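**User:** Here is a favour to ask of a fellow structure person. Please take any protein you like and set down a full record of it. No explanation is needed for now; the record alone will do.

**Assistant:**
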Amino acid sequence: MENKKYEQEAKERWGQTEAYQEYARRNEGVSPAERDRRGRGLDAIFEAFAQCLKEEVMPHSEQAQELVKKLQDYITENHYTCTDKMLGILGQMYVADGRFRANINKHGEGTAEFIFAAIEVYCKG
Protein backbone atom coordinates (compact mmCIF):
# COMPACT_ATOMS: atom_id res chain seq x y z
CA MET A 1 0.00 0.00 0.00
CA GLU A 2 2.78 2.41 0.97
CA ASN A 3 4.64 1.71 -2.30
CA LYS A 4 1.54 2.63 -4.33
CA LYS A 5 1.39 5.96 -2.49
CA TYR A 6 5.05 6.65 -3.29
CA GLU A 7 4.60 5.60 -6.90
CA GLN A 8 1.68 8.02 -7.28
CA GLU A 9 3.66 10.83 -5.66
CA ALA A 10 6.62 10.19 -7.98
CA LYS A 11 4.35 10.19 -11.01
CA GLU A 12 2.76 13.48 -9.96
CA ARG A 13 6.12 15.14 -9.24
CA TRP A 14 8.23 13.81 -12.10
CA GLY A 15 5.85 12.10 -14.51
CA GLN A 16 6.59 14.56 -17.30
CA THR A 17 10.36 14.17 -17.08
CA GLU A 18 12.36 12.06 -19.47
CA ALA A 19 13.92 10.10 -16.58
CA TYR A 20 10.54 9.16 -15.13
CA GLN A 21 9.19 8.12 -18.52
CA GLU A 22 12.26 5.93 -19.06
CA TYR A 23 11.77 4.45 -15.58
CA ALA A 24 8.10 3.70 -16.35
CA ARG A 25 8.97 2.03 -19.68
CA ARG A 26 11.77 -0.07 -18.21
CA ASN A 27 9.71 -1.15 -15.19
CA GLU A 28 6.51 -2.03 -17.01
CA GLY A 29 5.73 -5.66 -16.35
CA VAL A 30 8.61 -6.19 -13.92
CA SER A 31 7.76 -9.00 -11.52
CA PRO A 32 7.58 -8.50 -7.76
CA ALA A 33 10.56 -10.85 -7.43
CA GLU A 34 12.61 -8.66 -9.77
CA ARG A 35 11.57 -5.52 -7.86
CA ASP A 36 12.73 -7.20 -4.65
CA ARG A 37 16.04 -8.18 -6.26
CA ARG A 38 16.60 -4.60 -7.40
CA GLY A 39 15.78 -3.30 -3.94
CA ARG A 40 18.21 -5.73 -2.33
CA GLY A 41 20.90 -4.67 -4.79
CA LEU A 42 20.44 -1.03 -3.87
CA ASP A 43 20.43 -1.92 -0.17
CA ALA A 44 23.74 -3.76 -0.64
CA ILE A 45 25.29 -0.59 -2.07
CA PHE A 46 23.91 1.47 0.82
CA GLU A 47 25.31 -1.12 3.24
CA ALA A 48 28.74 -0.76 1.62
CA PHE A 49 28.53 3.02 2.14
CA ALA A 50 27.56 2.41 5.79
CA GLN A 51 30.62 0.19 6.18
CA CYS A 52 32.82 2.97 4.80
CA LEU A 53 31.36 5.33 7.37
CA LYS A 54 32.00 2.82 10.18
CA GLU A 55 35.61 2.46 8.99
CA GLU A 56 35.97 6.27 8.91
CA VAL A 57 36.62 6.30 5.17
CA MET A 58 36.37 9.85 3.81
CA PRO A 59 33.73 10.75 1.19
CA HIS A 60 36.46 11.85 -1.24
CA SER A 61 38.42 8.58 -0.91
CA GLU A 62 38.86 6.27 -3.86
CA GLN A 63 36.75 3.63 -2.08
CA ALA A 64 33.80 5.97 -1.54
CA GLN A 65 34.06 7.38 -5.05
CA GLU A 66 34.02 3.87 -6.52
CA LEU A 67 30.82 3.21 -4.57
CA VAL A 68 29.23 6.36 -5.97
CA LYS A 69 30.06 5.13 -9.48
CA LYS A 70 28.62 1.72 -8.58
CA LEU A 71 25.41 3.39 -7.34
CA GLN A 72 25.11 5.46 -10.50
CA ASP A 73 25.71 2.44 -12.72
CA TYR A 74 23.22 0.35 -10.73
CA ILE A 75 20.49 2.95 -11.13
CA THR A 76 21.25 3.24 -14.85
CA GLU A 77 21.21 -0.53 -15.34
CA ASN A 78 18.02 -1.12 -13.37
CA HIS A 79 15.86 1.99 -13.52
CA TYR A 80 16.79 4.96 -15.74
CA THR A 81 19.83 6.76 -17.11
CA CYS A 82 21.41 8.34 -14.05
CA THR A 83 23.42 11.32 -15.25
CA ASP A 84 25.74 13.20 -12.91
CA LYS A 85 23.07 15.90 -12.63
CA MET A 86 20.40 13.33 -11.68
CA LEU A 87 22.80 11.69 -9.24
CA GLY A 88 23.38 15.05 -7.56
CA ILE A 89 19.63 15.56 -7.20
CA LEU A 90 19.26 12.07 -5.72
CA GLY A 91 22.02 12.82 -3.23
CA GLN A 92 20.14 15.91 -2.10
CA MET A 93 16.93 13.91 -1.76
CA TYR A 94 18.72 11.28 0.32
CA VAL A 95 19.22 13.87 3.07
CA ALA A 96 16.35 16.32 2.48
CA ASP A 97 13.48 13.82 2.37
CA GLY A 98 13.02 12.14 5.73
CA ARG A 99 11.69 8.96 4.13
CA PHE A 100 14.82 8.51 2.01
CA ARG A 101 17.08 9.46 4.92
CA ALA A 102 15.39 6.97 7.29
CA ASN A 103 15.49 4.17 4.71
CA ILE A 104 19.19 4.71 4.04
CA ASN A 105 20.14 5.34 7.65
CA LYS A 106 18.72 1.96 8.66
CA HIS A 107 22.14 0.75 7.51
CA GLY A 108 23.82 3.04 10.03
CA GLU A 109 23.16 6.50 11.37
CA GLY A 110 24.72 9.12 9.10
CA THR A 111 24.89 6.90 6.01
CA ALA A 112 22.60 9.16 3.96
CA GLU A 113 24.73 12.19 4.80
CA PHE A 114 27.90 10.27 3.93
CA ILE A 115 26.47 9.24 0.55
CA PHE A 116 25.38 12.81 -0.12
CA ALA A 117 28.90 14.09 0.64
CA ALA A 118 30.48 11.41 -1.57
CA ILE A 119 28.09 12.20 -4.42
CA GLU A 120 28.90 15.90 -4.15
CA VAL A 121 32.62 15.14 -4.57
CA TYR A 122 31.92 12.78 -7.45
CA CYS A 123 29.72 15.24 -9.34
CA LYS A 124 32.21 18.10 -8.94
CA GLY A 125 35.10 15.95 -10.15
